[in-house]
Amino acid sequence: MTSHNATILVGYDGSPDADSALQWAAETSVLEGHDVRAVIVDDGTSPTDGPPHQDPPSEMVAKVEAVLTGAGASGVAERHGRDEGDVESILLQEATDADMLVVGGRAHGRVGAVLGSLSQHLLGHAECPVVVVRGAVGSEADRIVVGVDGSEESIAALRFACRRASVTEEPVVALHAWNAGHVQLDHRGQLPDEVGARSVKAAAVLDESVAGVQLDYPAVTIEEELVAMPPAEALVEASANASLVVTGSRGRGALAGLLLGSVSHHVVRLGQCPVAVVR
Length: 279
Known about the structure:
By secondary structure, the chain is of the alpha/beta class. The chain has nine helices and ten strands. Helix 2 (57-71) links the parallel strand 2 and strand 3 (75-81). The chain has helices at 16-32, 57-71, 87-94, 112-116, 120-125, 152-168, 193-216, 231-238, 262-270, and strands at 7-11, 35-42, 75-81, 100-104, 130-133, 144-147, 172-177, 222-227, 244-248, 275-278.
């Protein structure tokens, strides 16, 4: 495999979400000085064998080149045959030396089985951050939201967000959500002391997580946000007013044993903006 430097890899199949993913990747490449490599897997079927409006590989290549040119980005479209492996394997192999892998949230035809279902294997095993783009990317949101829980993966996610914010000049919202669960008031009608103690502990985790990263990105504004609700719900809710949500692939506690944590999986499925999953 050829070595590639400073590259954004895009899994492309001509679907609307793949178009959005390609556009996001092209704009990001201009911001961050990366090249784009769009991978198109040709399974050898004719256009009439696929779903309606499925473009043949040659037309996909032309679409990729047009988007890159329009965005002022440098890059190439690469066609891969199915004899090289399934789509998932090809993307994982090509992503080995990429800076990030960008895919659409839903897909059709040749890569629909992988990108449409957002394979946990792809998200859990890619050696680089994976960004999932679903639908048209809005331009009004101007903040990057990061789920922070003190784990190594969440610190890596916060660093990823700050690197992007350093070129987009957006504020970064470090969000720590802690689940208070079912809470009963005491005989005085007040919250029990243990809830307050858990809140203080959660705030300490957030402060400590942000402090180290802020030193490395002094020019980036990092806003801390502490919320008492399930983390997955908090991040999905925050995604409605974000340009990007970033989460670690796994979190603390029981989630650490999963290749793709339930929080990350939930946000990828339901997030209302592009979602980056960072290992």
